[in-house]
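Sample pair:
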Amino acid sequence: MTIGQPTPPSRADVEVRFTAILNGGQSRDEVDRWATRAMQTLEYAEVDETIWWALGMLSGIDLRDGPDEPYLHDDEQVLGWLTEFRERCRAIS
């Protein structure tokens, strides 16, 4: 086993998480935990700016004002972030 810098998720991995929220494939809690864990693991690693931005959007995706309140970020906003993520990926490619 080689010990070195942690490997950041790919752009495809990130896109899958945005899509999973929108189609119900994963809960917001699952995606939040995945993104937060990735950000903590990658804190000192070199990470693509677009991936780092997306992880920041996905981290906290399960936040609410209160236990019976809707999510702070609705599906329309998540779709907007997915669209922006795809645009950022095209701009860098």
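The first helix runs from residue 11 to 23.
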